[in-house]
Design a protein that fits this description.
The complex is a heterodimer of chains A (611) and B (188).
Chain A (H helix, E strand, L loop, with lengths): L1 E2 L4 E5 H12 L3 E4 L7 H6 L5 E4 L3 H13 L3 E7 H6 L1 H10 L4 E8 L13 H7 L3 E2 L4 H18 L3 E6 H4 L1 E6 L15 H4 L3 H21 L5 E3 L5 E6 L2 H11 L5 E5 L7 H9 L3 E5 L5 H13 L4 E3 L12 H11 L27 H15 L9 E2 L24 H13 L4 E5 H17 L5 E6 L18 H8 L3 E5 L4 H18 L3 E6 L3 H6 L8 E4 L9 H6 L4 E3 L5 E3 L19 E4 L6 H6 L1
Parallel strand pairs in A: 3-4, 3-5, 5-6, 6-8, 7-8, 11-12, 11-13, 13-14, 15-16, 16-17, 17-19, 18-19
Antiparallel strand pairs in A: 1-2, 2-9, 10-12, 20-23, 21-22
Helix pairs in contact in A: 1-7, 3-5, 11-14, 15-19, 16-17
Chain B lengths: L2 E9 L4 H14 L4 E4 L10 E9 L13 E4 L2 H6 L9 E5 L15 H6 L5 E5 L1 H7 L6 H11 L8 H8 L2 H11 L8
Parallel strand pairs in B: 1-4, 4-5, 5-6
Antiparallel strand pairs in B: 1-3, 2-3
Helix pairs in contact in B: 1-6, 4-5, 4-7, 5-7
Chain lengths: 611, 188
Amino acid sequence: MIQISSQKRVLLGNEAIAYGALSAGVGIATSYPGTPASEILETLEKHNIYTEWSTNEKVAFETAYGAAMMGAFALTSMKHVGLNVAADPLMSSSYTGVEGAFVIVTGDDPSMWSSQNEQDNRYYGLHALIPVLEPYDPQSAYQLIIEAFKLSDRVKHPVLFKTTTRVSHTREPVELRPPSKPILGKFIKNPKKYVLVPENARRNRIEQLKRWDMIQEEVEKLNELIDEGSKDLIIASGISYGYVVDALKEFDIKANVLKISTPVPVPKKLVIEAVSKADRVLIVEEGGPVVEYQIKDILYDEGIRVELHGKDLITRVGEMTPDKVYYAFSKFFSIDIITDYLQVPQDTPPRPPAFCPGCPHRSSFIDLKKAVVMASLRPDDVFFSGDIGCYTLGLNPPFEEIDSTTDMGSSIGLANGVYRATQKIPIAIIGDSTFFHTGLPALANAVYYKTPMLVFVLDNRTTAMTGEQPSPSKKIEIGDVAKGLGVKYVKYIDPFDTNTSIKVLSDALKWVKENKEPAVVIAKRACALLVTRSLREYELPKAVVDLNRCTGCSICYDYFTCPAIIPRPDKKAEIDPLTCIGCGACVQICPFKAISIKGEKPEKWDELWLG
Amino acid sequence: MVRVNILIAGIGGQGVVTAGRIIAEAGVYSNVKVLTSETHGLSQRGGAVNIHVRIGDVNSPLIPLGKADYLVGLEATEVLRNLNYANKNTEIIINEYISRPVLPKIRPLSLDKILDKLKDLKVHVINAEEIAIKAGNPLAANAAILGYLYSLGAFPGIEEESFIKALRTESNIKAFKMAQSIVKVKSL
């Protein structure tokens, strides 16, 4: 974030959302980390309001919801799939409404840059009867989040604010207003509203629909018809608006444009006005036909028949791109659009993300595979039930120790089912933050039903993948939690201590086989990024290869695959001193003892890695 | 109004996102609209990343296929991966640096092989690491690339002063200036 003047700053979309919320008077903000939503709370936590990284999205949602029940201006932000975790209180919040203002930010990820699906969370608005506001760039995100708080405050109803990866992670200059005084609540008891027993819920249902009617009126003024006097109408929602404006300029086309900032509910009067002036309509929206279905519904009721295109010309798959708009325009306006571009050579080597130099997960996967063999099992006969975090990369060769990753906490839950269906002992692999997120109930279930499985917790002391947000593991020992839940076999390993780790893990597998109940092993070593961040001022030690000892066996670069280890043309290994952080994990891996560490360990080195 | 599209590709950790931020910041100092779109999250962990930089009269973050005026590879192979954003007139700037994908048994393409695939295109090869090391910080390679782009006229309306302000550190500024003096080292 860069200050240009008191008014204009270069901001990431997510930063703009945070600054808009501060201008609107947000007093309490909560989140669980998830790309592309993480930078919203990261920005807010630098300001003087109450913020927290909650243990999961449901808790984050409820914390903000509870605050809004007391009259606070509250915000909760999460990635799109996080809202699934919070869907239970989401539905209730629409029934009860709130006293203050309650804005729920969902960061959708069309094209799945960092997600398991590309669900379109505007559908939650239709499902829960909660209005959805959708910006198209950082500047509009800043302004629209302020409108979201105003709308929620006026109607006393939650408001969903939908951003996407391309809005959240685009940077542009944004005009800012100064922050407002944070609005906190006062003590309010209103059980007739907030206790959703049937009698109250039935009354709330009627009130909810009354508020929905008010919302339909309120959203009219948040949308805009740009009338060029044309008989062609483009209706564009969210980020599609920017692409439509650029494409109209590019091809010098005149058309009326209805810019939709509230895809749920669409502004009925403005839609009727805009369509009445048109002969032909093209709806450009990312994801599902959320705007299209509503507009078709309105036009049917009004008896208006026009030629209307939408998802027949714009795919549901992936994020909006200029090329998708070009294709739709070529059909809708019957123009030739020739895109002349070069082809990506087919033999370009793939470059998936990889474990960082010093990543403890790399060592954990190496140790685990050896332990499986030591326990007289074959790795291809063991189900490795994975979870969501950097360790999902254990899917890739040479590890190939992740057989499923579906949703947060799923490793232990799916392992339950895998065992029941096959009677083969599965290994659930879960990170520390994910363990607290939704691993706990599944582990309680495994203990209660005595499901034989090895739960391998990769505790790297942080929520790493999303940018090193805090994890409860720093204050709550996972081993104590597991013991408290009734797990009888709980052990810790340092994954860099390869020989001991292999022994502990294989003993644990044997114990599960004999005792037919779950065991927990915790690999405790900090994320390398977390460690090196604290040591920026220090010269780090480096690994070096003794070329007289190195035989070129390739184990370190083909089997261990640290990015800092480079094969030389003669197949011997060398270490890239710019990439190596001197962690020492490779020293034990070399069967010929050719790798050693040179240089002094900085002060606090061991504490940072193992504390 | 002028519009310039620059696609910068590289590997997570190389300073690709930072390069975009420097251009965006320099743009504001010179009152030129700059939109940059970044890759965050898991992909950043040593994987292929790119940023779309759009300067001037633009309202949307992504560059259409074939419409990059400049295609930059902070790592040479990554130019190939993003070649569909280029057309035959695109200025292609390649850093000599090649990084091996962290997968077993995968061998990287050599610079000669990469250049061979770019025959008849407008290719510039520079050694940004060498410039960065001479400037006093091996991490200033992205600043060197920006200096080279600047000398090609890639940033209409953005003054050198604005870049100097946005580059902040002495080694960055030095790399930026040094790279400007090596105009068109190797044009194929």
